[in-house]
Structure formats: C-alpha cells, structure tokens
Design brief:
about 50 residues
C-alpha cells in the first residue's frame, strides 16, 4: 500500500489535535492525576491511622 503524503498544514493540524489529549491539562491527564492523588491520600491515611 502506498502511503499518502500530507501537506504541512495537515501535519500541524493532526499534531495539535493529538497533543490536546496528552499531558496534565488534557481530560485524560487530569483524570489520571485525580486518581493518583486519591490513591496517595488513601495510602497516607492508612500509614497514619492504620486500617
């Protein structure tokens, strides 16, 4: 199969859209950060107060 060539504008558009879904500011990254903070809070609670 031959690979189609994209214009420079298309490459930039796809790069911008893909970067929107990664990192701590994205919905996926923010959700991962919230889950990590909740897990850390539970571990600190267990370490301080026990079960």
């Amino acid at each position: 199969m031959a690979q189609s060539e994209m214009s420079r504008e298309e490459e930039l558009r796809f790069a911008e859209r893909s970067m929107e879904w990664y990192g701590w500011g994205s919905p996926i990254g923010m959700g991962a950060m919230i889950v990590a903070l909740a897990m850390a809070a539970v571990l600190v609670r267990i370490a301080v107060y026990g079960f």
